[in-house]
Each structure stands twice: as structure tokens, then as C-alpha cells.
Amino acid sequence: MSRQYLIRRLLIAIPAVFGISIVLFSVLAMAPGDPFEELATNPAIPPEVRMALRAKFGLDDPIWQRYLHWLLAMLQGDWGFSFTSRMDVDKLILQRLPTTLVVIGSSQLLAIIVAIPVGVLAARRPYSIFDQIANTFAFIGFSLPTFFTGLLLILVFSVQLDWLPFVYRADIPGSGLPWIWEHVKQSIMPVTVLGLFQAASLVRYVRSAVLDVIKLDYVTTARSKGIGERKVIVKHVVRNALIPVVTLVALQMPVVFGGAIVTEQIFRVPGIGSLLISAMQSNDTPVVMGVTFVFACLVIMFNLIADILYGWLDPRIAFR
What we know:
By secondary structure, this protein is mainly α. It has a single domain (3-20, 89-319), classed as MetI-like fold (Orthogonal Bundle). The protein contains 13 helices and no strands. The chain has helices at 3-30, 37-41, 47-56, 63-75, 89-124, 129-143, 146-160, 176-214, 217-224, 229-251, 253-267, 272-281, 285-313. The radius of gyration is 24 Å and the shape is globular. The relative contact order is 0.14.
């Protein structure tokens, strides 16, 4: 993979980040609601105090001026101040971001581990019993929303069987293997809900991609040379079939983050998804802007990783 290819992808990602920040800031600035609404209805606080706070935070300035002030401050590491939590936005997000990344990363890893072998085996034996069972479960998993499967798992494994905790705690005391096992136990259900939902759609896509590749001439040629079937599938079929699958994984990242917000609410996961919901309910605009901007940056980052994987899976792409 050439260095020029990586530089080109980075140069495309940078203006995308700025464009998204402009759209997000403009939409939030025009949205109804006032972070100092409670101060306006509180008779103990004089109106001049409220006006002084609005002037301090620049809420009455033009949108373009407020955006430039926010952008310059953000580039210097100042993401704003949370009106509700009374702390810096960047510190508030950094407290929640690792939990969200662990849940989302584990769920994506689970989805890939399940989808690739199931999709490949289903494509090698199309219309077999295994293929029909895999397609049936894929349709069921993709049709059920995450809030339904999350509540179903809570009823079965937490209420009925009492095997797993249904409330995620980030402050579990202890250390060593028991502490790790407690974190694993409370992560099983949210990771399973997100992972199997994504795996359901990936199975169908992997199956279709493998079916398209497995019929090509170079695969037949590889078999005629006496190469083993497993090596043909792994080296010649799966690697080329993964290119459209990588595209799907990258394009579905907004859906994954949306599902993570719902899942965090169900299992009370203290991630940035639950932080976003609470900030929207309290009109905490700096936090909403910070969290949505982080989500957008993560989506762009995953798309950049997908572009890098394109160049590794098919070196011809890196020279176009």
C-alpha cells in the first residue's frame, strides 16, 4: 500500500470533518430550547444574571460567529462547558467514551466472527438445510429491533434465570480475575444484542458476495491446478469477497451507533449514547454538540479504516 494512497484518504477525511461540524452546529443553533430556561422560570434568580450568562457563553451572537468561536476553542482543546454536569465537555465525554468503544468494538467483532464463517459455509452449499437455517435466523435477527431483543434477554437471563446483571456498572469494586469476570458478565447482553443484530445482515451479504466470487474463472483455474479446496476458499474467494463486506460494515457504522444509544438506555450502560440522551433532555447544547461530533468523527474514522482495508485486500485500489 502506497503512502500517497493514505495521504489522499486523509485529505478527503479532514474537510468531511469540518463540513459535518458546520452542519451539526447550525442545526443545534437553530433548534428550539434554551439551556438557561430553568433560570428564566426561577424567581430567585434575577433576569440580569441570566442575560449575563447568555452574553458570557455567546448565545446571542450570530451563528457564524458562535461557530468560529467554538471551532477555535475546540482546536485548542476547549470543547465547552456542560450546563448540567458543571464540568468540561471533553472530560465528560472521555469518562464515557471508553465504555461505548468497548461495547461497540466487541459487538462488531462478534458480528464479524459469526457472519463470515456462517456466510461462507452457506454460500458453499447454497439451498442446503444449513443455508436455509442460516437465512431464516438472519431474517429473524435483522427484523427484531435491538430494544426488543434487549428486553427479551433481560427477562430470560436476568429475571428468570438470574445469571446476568441487567444494569451495567462502570464502578465495580475489586481487582484481578473476579473483577474482570464481573465486567465480562455485565457486557454479555449488550454486546450480544448489538453483535447479533449486525451479524444478521452481514451473513446475507457475505453469502451473496461469496456466491458472486466462487463462480469466477480464476477460482475454477485455481482448483484445476490442484490447490486444496480450503486454500482456494480462504485465499482466492474470501479475500476478494470481503471487499464489498468491508463497504457494508463501514456504511452501517451510523446504524451501529444508533443501536448503541438504544442499547445503552436499556442496559443503563454509562456510555456517550446515554450521555447524549440526558443532554438532549436538559437542553445541554455543548454536550449534545460534543457527543454528536464525536460520533461523526468515529464514523469517518471507521470509513478511513475501511479505505485502508480496501488497499490491503485489493492492492489495485491503492493505485487508482
